[in-house]
Amino acid sequence: MDLAVQRYNLTASFSTKELCGLALQINRSCASIPANIAEGHERGSRKGYVQFLWIAHGSSCELKAHILLSDYRSDWA
């Protein structure tokens, strides 16, 4: 939940143009992290759960990249 709150705080300052691009990607990768963990948990096997944990990890790396890019967004204007 803390991650979602931080995401909303970050994207609140985005322009309309940015909301259509980078913010959407941040929202999607942020939402996919807990969704993949939940899906893996429901798979009922350790192997399936671990597979979805790796997918969630990949989404967290994607989120990190998007956040790093957002630090440079003021240069894009």
Q: In which range does the helix fraction lie?
A: over 70%
Structure classification = mainly alpha
What is the first-to-last residue Cα distance? 31 Å
Shape: elongated
Mean pLDDT: 83
How much strand content do the residues show? under 5%
In short:
With 77 residues, the chain is mainly alpha-helical.
Distinctive features:
77 residues; mainly alpha; 4 helices; 0% strand
Question: What can you tell me about this protein's structure?
Answer:
With 77 residues, this protein is an all-alpha fold. It has a domain of 41 residues. It has four helices and no strands. Helix 1 packs antiparallel against helix 3 and helix 3 runs antiparallel to helix 4. It is elongated.
Layout: helices, strands, pairs:
Blueprint: H1 2-11, H2 16-20, H3 22-42, H4 46-70
